[in-house]
Amino acid sequence: MTKDLFFDQLLQGECIDVMKGLAGGSVNCIFADPPYNLQLKGELRRPDETVVDGVNDDWDKFSDYQAYDDFTRGWLSEARRLLDKDGTIWVIGSYHNIFRLGTILQDLGFWILNDIIWRKANPMPNFRGRRFTNAHETLIWAARSAKSRYCFNYQAMKALNDDLQMRSDWYLPLCTGKERLQDEAGLKLHPTQKPESLLHRVLLASTRENDVVLDPFCGTGTTPAVAKKLGRHYLGIERYLPYLEAARRRVAEVEVLPSEKLAITPAKREMPRIPFGFFVENGSLPAGTYVYDRQRRLRASVSPDGTLVSGKQRGSIHKLGAQLTNAPSCNGWTFWYFEREGKLYPIDLLRQETHTLRQTA
Ligand SMILES: C[S@@+](CC[C@H](N)C(=O)[O-])C[C@H]1O[C@@H](n2cnc3c(N)ncnc32)[C@H](O)[C@@H]1O
Question: Whole-structure pTM over 0.85, yes or no?
Fold first, then answer.
């Protein structure tokens, strides 16, 4: 294989070998859902003696912890070589492997940014009743190094969470229903197919349009499918051909959203510096319009010079907001609301809409 990176492909093979053929620094983000090393001994049965359809495949078997750690160090070293200097990696795992993954990530020089708890809305019960029900998996999000100027779409995450900061505990269902790929017998094709909702959040948080996303253990192709949908380039690696073929079929069916539909809430620092007066001049909030606080307890009128007036007090959007609430300071963009079709919206929305228009023009 050449050292060129082939975008938008799913490749078959041992991930370390395939990664060795790819050019260093050519990937922006990696999502890796590696073998868990569950160390299952025999079948797991429910109280009614039916067999639990869990992970008991050869790909998950390692002779001991040392073998698992050697393998982990091998693929994570290649992952680090492939990442752009500002790139990030996500690894997902359970208590069986996540601590080993975390230690090796740190040993190799990655810089951990967050550990995310994916709390499963519909976990598998604990059949033997001798432990707590295992109801979550952990994702570690790490930058290539402590110096990486990594991508985090903070505003988009906040928007996705009804305007509240996105927290590190995510409540999402397992992959079920139509999304779950089936084999010819109608049984689940893959024991650990991840839900698209999880990848949607991961990729929306940490990548930009046209970034390159690599999944070295792509299984049924969840990461490439979501990456394609979101207008990111993808590269998937999978050892087991039946999974790979199913993943290829799945990804081929995905339609890419057109670029103008992919724009997300921009980061504040990427927003143009637009003075409030711009919206008075261009008629979005003409002089005489009223703006309100969120609860409509306060009201101010927009002046032709972009100041706000309430009773005898006049000032900029920030100054008047601070004066009226007796606060030392106030972000007028998020404090004041304007009315559109009977509903209130923060005036910051006007800046965001202007930015989106400029992006797609
Ligand atoms: C935990 S599953 C990933 C499932 C995937 N995230 C999905 O949503 O379908 C791990 C996958 O890695 C594959 N695999 C295991 N070891 C591998 C290796 N050394 N190289 C490439 N693929 C490997 C397995 O066949 C399995 O499909």
Answer: no
